[in-house]
Design goal:
Rossmann fold, alpha/beta, binds NADP nicotinamide-adenine-dinucleotide phosphate, single chain, globular, 7-stranded parallel beta sheet, 275 residues, 48% helix, two-stranded parallel ribbon
Length: 275
């Protein structure tokens, strides 16, 4: 985080803290003594160990209100974890642009808007850490998750550029890239499968969907991602990219960087049952 602070003086804002990675991260950081604020589009009345704020990352007014309400209680924001997200599954050719745009609204524009509301606070206090929760899908285009991958690629590019722009103000950025995790993400994914028309993709998309669902259901424990986020927050000089996943997922990221794309494409296609 640059300037080292003790947990009880460290304010952390985590978007999408009602479920999965965000929730478990908020709980872990609270347990470790951090001052945690989580967000949800519709916070439930149930008790959480951290303060929950209403925020829809696609609604600029709700972002302004949530940040203002946090700032009424605190002197600053030390860490922002841009975690809120969902995915669509679809054949690129058949995807309505409204759905493709919705994907970018949440994953890309949402994370950007939250960051832009927090950056003035961080610049004023001359320190801060923004952790963007990307995905290994942000490192390789995944078939039938093309818009999800594209939105995470966009997030990765923005994070690289922003990192250089805000470093002079003492603000650091890091990316967390989880592989498949067991969270609400799988059931929340919106599959756009055209059953009623003669879709040339129908058979393949169903086959690939089964593989994706199975991998996520037996995916990693999201607590692993939470522990990595804690590790990054604790570091005086955080690294930029952290892949959190099984050895084969880490190997895939490595191979993507090393192999000619045609070779890598063959491996990934066969993984997703595409001949
Ligand atoms: N699970 C995986 O396999 C996996 C792998 C790689 C990356 N990731 C990334 O990890 C992040 C967290 O996902 P998860 O796996 O923990 O999924 P999850 O269990 O479905 O949780 C998603 C969270 O995002 C929030 N959210 C969704 N749309 C929102 C919006 N428009 N505005 C504000 N909040 C919104 C949800 O809150 P409300 O519904 O309460 O608003 C929820 O708290 C996402 O960015 C995802 O892309 C997940």
């Amino acid at each position: 985080m640059g300037k080292r602070k003790i947990p009880s003086d460290t304010v952390v804002l985590i978007t999408g803290a009602s479920s999965g990675i965000g929730k478990i991260t908020a709980e872990l950081l609270t347990k470790k003594g951090y001052r945690v604020y989580g967000t949800s589009r519709a916070p439930s009345s149930g008790q959480t160990s951290f303060t929950m704020l209403q925020m829809d990352v696609t609604d600029p007014v709700s972002i302004v209100k949530a940040v203002a309400s946090l700032m009424e209680k605190e002197n600053g924001i030390d860490v922002l974890v841009n975690n809120a997200g969902f995915g669509i599954g679809s054949a690129i050719e058949e995807t309505e642009l409204t759905m493709a745009r919705k994907q970018f609204e949440v994953v890309f524009w949402g994370a950007l808007q939250v960051a832009r509301n927090v950056l003035p606070v961080m610049r004023e206090q001359k320190h801060g850490l923004i952790i963007n929760v990307s995905s290994i899908a942000g490192r390789m285009g995944l078939p039938y998750q093309g818009f999800y991958s594209s939105a995470k690629f966009a997030m990765e590019g923005l994070t690289e550029a922003l990192s250089m722009e805000v470093k002079p103000f003492g603000i650091r950025l890091s990316l967390i890239e989880p592989g498949d995790m067991r969270t609400g993400f799988t059931s929340s994914r919106e599959w756009l499968i055209l059953e009623n028309i003669e879709s040339p993709y129908l058979k393949q998309i169903k086959k690939t969907k089964d593989i994706i669902d199975k991998n996520e259901i037996k995916g990693g424990d999201p607590a692993k991602v939470a522990r990595k986020i804690l590790h990054v927050i604790r570091k005086k000089h955080p690294g930029f990219r952290y892949v959190v996943g099984k050895p084969d997922e880490k190997a895939a990221v490595l191979l993507k960087g090393l192999l000619p794309f045609r070779w890598f494409e063959r491996i990934l296609s066969s993984f997703y049952g595409i001949k």
